[in-house]
Amino acid sequence: RPRVLSGIQPTADSFHFGNYLGATRQWVDLQRDHQPFFFIADLHAITVEHDPKVLRERTLRAAAQLLAMGIDPARSAIFVQSHVPEHAQLAWVLNCLTGFGEARRMTQFKDKSAKGGEGAASVGLFTYPILQAADILLYRPHYVPVGEDQRQHLELTRDLAQRFNSRYKKTFRLPEPYILKATGKIADLQDPTKKMSKSGSAPNGIIEMLDDPARSAKKIRSAVTDSGTDIRFDPEGKPGVSNLLTIYSSLTGESIPALEEQYAGRMYGDLKKDLADVVVGFVTPFRDRTLELLDNQDHLLQVLAQGAETAGSVAESTLRDVYQRIGFVAPV
Ligand code: TYM
């Protein structure tokens, strides 16, 4: 079975609709006929200032949410990145293979360091995409299911894999990004030309999966729509309405043309009211299930330990190959 790998940062109390529809829902779907590795990227979470107690909590909340949405530990290795030390170890090797200018071209560093200026950003934030490349290459996956915003990091990953393979010996598989056209970029509800984002969106622009469902309903009802009145899928001309149709379609399985037909001649308010109900129907059981899982932390830790063991044996064998090929003397 082809392998898939992906990760998510524990940098918020809740995943949002962009994370779910853009990425983690595909994780759940792909686990059926792939060999999956999914992890919580706590090493990445410390590239910006953080509170240790909050990070610990959010890591467990992330694990509970992944299980609640259907990641099945019997099929998937689900683990915490820092439990598998090879991630940091391979990252060092890849750091030494990456050009400074090449790292500099990564646009997320520019975006994320924009506020305090580049001088205030950590070196970890700068080398973040190289750690991500290590995360991926360790497991030699065929596919990496992510949102559109990760495409550039995937390209760097492939470049580094190719460079290592040609400089030393063929060691890494060149992974393919698995990015869905329909949901690869879920937009901010208040500013639909931007992506929904935990750091960049205003509170009303983002639907959090663990938020009070009534509040999420209200956010949908007050989403920014476009000028005009017709309910039509046109991401360029009508980004607000199109985003709502995308969310609607992906939560219900109804196609966009079917929704356009259903709402022909009706008002934006009708669409928003119906979508608000759909959202409440979806997040309510998800939230209950997550809170239930969070009540049994021993079970969560057990699942994560088992995942780290599975992942660790794969990671260990890849790193051994890498160390040997770059000329490190193996310990006896
Ligand atoms: P993170 O934690 O920011 O986001 C997790 C996943 O959610 C996707 N996503 C979106 N998709 C569609 N629309 C949106 N508005 C939206 N917002 C977020 C992201 O693309 C991502 O797939 N660097 C990664 C974590 C990571 C990783 C990895 C991923 C670390 N190592 C190795 C894959 C492989 C990140 O920050 O994701």
Automatic annotation (TrEMBL):
Which top EC class is given? ligase
Q: What is its EC number?
A: 6.1.1.2
Q: Which InterPro entries match?
A: aa-tRNA-synth_Ic (IPR002305), Rossmann-like_a/b/a_fold (IPR014729), Trp-tRNA-ligase (IPR002306), Trp-tRNA-ligase_bac-type (IPR024109), Trp-tRNA_synthetase (IPR050203)
Coiled-coil-forming residues are: none
Q: Where is this motif: 'KMSKS' region?
A: 195-199
Q: What are the protein's UniProt keywords?
A: Aminoacyl-tRNA synthetase, ATP-binding, Cytoplasm, Ligase, Nucleotide-binding, Protein biosynthesis
Q: Where in the cell is it found?
A: Cytoplasm
Listed binding positions for L-tryptophan are D135
Residues that hold ATP according to the record: Q9, P10, T11, G18, N19, G147, E148, D149, I186, K195, M196, S197, K198, S199
Q: Does the keyword Glycoprotein apply?
A: no
Domain of life of the source = Bacteria
Catalytic activity from the UniProt record: tRNA(Trp) + L-tryptophan + ATP = L-tryptophyl-tRNA(Trp) + AMP + diphosphate + H(+)
Identify the CDD domains for this entry.
TrpRS_core
The Gene Ontology terms for molecular function here are: ligase activity
A Pfam family that the UniProt record links to this protein = tRNA-synt_1b
User: What family is reported?
Assistant: Belongs to the class-I aminoacyl-tRNA synthetase family.
Q: What does this protein do?
A: Catalyzes the attachment of tryptophan to tRNA(Trp).
Q: How does it assemble?
A: Homodimer.
| NCBIfam families reported in the protein's UniProt record | trpS
Protein's UniProt name:
Tryptophan--tRNA ligase
